[in-house]
Amino acid sequence: MFGLRAPEISTGHTGSYYAASVNRKTDYPRLEGDHTADVVVVGGGFTGANLALELAERGMDVALVEAHRIGWGASGRNGGQIIGGLGHDPERFVKTIGEEGVKAIYGMGLEGREIIAERVERYGIECDLKWGYCDVALKPRHMKQFAEWRDFEKQIGNPHTYRLLDRDELKHYVNSDRYLGGLYNDGNGHIHPLNLCIGEAAALEQLGGRIFEQSKVTDIEYGARTVIRTEQGSISAKRVVLAGNAYMGGLVPKLATRVLPSCSSVIGTEPLSEEMAREILPGDVAVCDPRTALDYFRLSGDNRLLFGGLSNYTGLEPRDLHGVMRKKLAAVYPQLADVRIDFAWSGWIGIGINRMPQLGHLSDNVSYIQAYSGHGVCPTHIMARITAEMLAGDPRRFDIMASIRHMPFPGGKLLRRPGLALGMAYYKLLDAL
Ligand SMILES: Cc1cc2nc3c(=O)[nH]c(=O)nc-3n(C[C@H](O)[C@H](O)[C@H](O)COP(=O)(O)OP(=O)(O)OC[C@H]3O[C@@H](n4cnc5c(N)ncnc54)[C@H](O)[C@@H]3O)c2cc1C
């Protein structure tokens, strides 16, 4: 069932529903010749585009350099689920960041959805933004976990509504016999991620930011001014931020050993009738189950069911992607077992060993942001904001994140994937119990 097929690497977008339904195709120039800028951001996903936009909003001279197209990486391929929070269990780092640091991270975790809402509103970005989300339970212990999550969100001051739902109540939001109940909240939601990312880049351009596509950075010359080079051009900058995440390859070996590209996949059905769409997801919410290799799904703006799953530390997608994903979908909605599948695609999630975003400095003027470990739509927006604060002279929030240590994955280049695949198999086994 599993064959050797890595997520598509090309200059166009992957064959996703999102790429087929963009508001506009981007066509920014390649980087050619020698340029200067105050800040260069490498990587045109949510992290890079938002960081560049934050800086342009502060009046800074910024250039964004993307190897493929804006949103080509995980940001333009994901499940589109807006999920609050930042990383996992910041309490683990209390010795390093103190109680105030832990509190600050919980505070940041509430900001992502606000930043997205603000971007959509201020720049008029059409990206099918909708609020409403359900965690769904497959085991009785999940319901217990959800009650704890709800109480915890209250405790940290989350202002949104959290409601525990029994099996029948859940059916008003997610109408599947598979689930025992769920946890609804109106703070999370869903979007067309590629249209959001392209809209954010367009806002950057409007504010005078320069954008280069199809311009892969192949070399970094560190110095008083750092120079990044592509095949046909270069930019010399006072500050550089690397935001290539799981797709950055070996450009900076130290960063590559700390982020593991893990493969996740999504299918998009044909547009469903209005009746069928309301039957399966009456609440039009985004949905996730709490397993390690979870199912996540939602309706698109044109009533397709976008159904995602798999989490594969080998970084490879199953050869029979349609078949594997159709089986998962049918387990949730048997009435859709024979639905036409119009799209199937995969992408790389940047996993970090301790599941906290990785921020830091490689030199006096080169910094990086990477590794959101699965949930990045909100955290990318938050990390971009705090990095912009740092570059504009207020490093307090950046420094909290940067003081968390991130170890490389053990096993070196050859053994870290098999080692982690084994670890994943163990967690999948626990999920099945
Ligand atoms: C299938 C899938 C489903 C997901 N679902 C969700 C979800 O529903 N909700 C959620 O919160 N998160 C989800 N995620 C995770 C989320 O998409 C990511 O955490 C987030 O998009 C990361 O954004 P980024 O900008 O850091 O990286 P990316 O979006 O991957 O962007 C990095 C960019 O850098 C560019 N780049 C790399 N190297 C270079 C170089 N040398 N020169 C120039 N450019 C370079 C790449 O081409 C790429 O475009 C999902 C991820 C995947 C793959």
UniProtKB/TrEMBL annotation:
Pfam families: DAO. The keyword Iron does not apply. One of its GO terms (molecular function) is oxidoreductase activity. It comes from the Bacteria. Signal peptide: none annotated. Keywords: Oxidoreductase. Residues 38-390 form the FAD dependent oxidoreductase domain. GO terms for cellular component: cytoplasm. SUPFAM superfamilies: FAD/NAD(P)-binding domain (SSF51905). This is Gamma-glutamylputrescine oxidoreductase.
